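Q: Sequence in, structure out?
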Amino acid sequence: MSDYGSAPEVIGSFDVDWYEYMHYLYLPVVMPGQYGVRLPDRLEFVRPVIEAVFAHEGARIYDDCYLYITARRGYATPGNPLNRPGWHADGFGTGDINYIWTDRYPTQFAEQTFHDISDDHVRSIEQFGEQVEPARVVTYPDCTLLRLDASVVHAAPEIPPPGGERSFLKISLSHERYNLLGNSHNYLFDYDWRMWSREEIRNDPAYAGGDAGPRVPA
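A: Exactly. Output:
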């Protein structure tokens, strides 16, 4: 792909009533063939954001689409922003879509041209880091919902000392199963997926890209 460095799409500002610490990683809340959005009680507060995502995507969401939630709230510190380090593109090599929101310490975006990025999932991350131009790094206001496709290169923020509480929400849309070890299980659905090592295949486009497991048909 030749257009790495695109800007995210700004959807709008959202106030999210988020009071407790939590850690959900790629929890499926919509699954093909199983009707409706199924949120654990602790995550009901994100339903208005999910509804905004559905309203924005419209007909682009099909019956065979999965929707996953990553929800983290904790104390972010220098060296531990509560998110994946390094410059990368979510859904690398795929058509997956991700929406992100944070209330503090905003995600950094490299809005620039990148050259000759490898299809290799390890080398591409190295190249993004090597080519990032600090003057072209952009952030957006707190509590802004942003839409990212696989051309948007970004990184977790650098947390100034001493740090502070940070909430981060990601809503991921994919036609593939996200089945890496460490991902959260939603007991409101009936499913039993084989789980794969995150270290072996994370960000590998042959396995559905950033944070997704192998491409296994529903």
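Residues 9-207 form a domain with the Jelly Rolls fold (CATH 2.60.120).
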